[in-house]
Design a protein that fits this description.
Blueprint lengths: L3 H30 L16 H8 L3 H20 L2 H34 L8 H19 L9 H21 L3
């Protein structure tokens, strides 16, 4: 597992990089659509709706479901005590968090260019907070060293039960 600082840095860089990428992507789409001539295969760009792309990536229900599955998997991994599974869980958490960072970067990049172009704000604080609950839970849970949760056995069992009981709560939020 990476250190807290390197994980936060990776998340921040991913958000920034995908924000820049989305900004450039939408700008390129608009520039190509504004050309006075049609490029074969790109005629549909004039009818491109940026909000459709945002809608496609901003459905955080899959993130909530995978986060709940992560907690259930973590409960099982705490019980079975296999180093390979410990590593698998750490990798899955990092991948999930990077995917969320990329999604948020994309949304922010589009949001920024749309706002600069005079479009109405489509983000509100409640949406942002709701979309961050499940990834935050995974982030915090992934920071806990699994070997510390395995001794004594009663602690191992208690942790597994708490994780299993907590997983359905993430499904209640479904990333709104």
């Amino acid at each position: 597992m990476n250190s807290l600082g390197s994980r936060l840095r990776a998340i921040g860089i991913t958000v920034g990089f995908f924000a820049a990428s989305a900004f450039v992507l939408l700008g390129t789409i608009w520039a190509l659509a504004a050309l006075p001539f049609t490029i074969p295969g790109l005629a549909e760009l004039a009818s491109y709706r940026p909000h459709d792309s945002i809608g496609a990536v901003s459905d955080f229900r899959i993130i909530a479901v995978l986060s709940a599955a992560y907690l259930a998997a973590m409960a099982l991994v705490v019980l079975i005590d296999m180093p390979y599974c410990d590593k698998m869980l750490a990798i899955f958490a990092d991948v999930l968090l990077m995917a969320v960072a990329a999604i948020w970067g994309f949304i922010f990049g589009y949001w920024l260019l749309l706002r600069l172009a005079g479009y109405e704000n489509f983000l509100d604080l409640n949406y942002i907070l709701a979309s961050l609950i499940a990834p935050f839970v995974v982030f915090v849970a992934s920071l806990v060293p699994l070997p510390r949760l395995r001794h004594p056995f009663i602690l191992r069992l208690l942790v597994a039960l708490v994780l299993l009981a907590g997983a359905p709560f993430l499904l209640l939020h479904l990333g709104s």
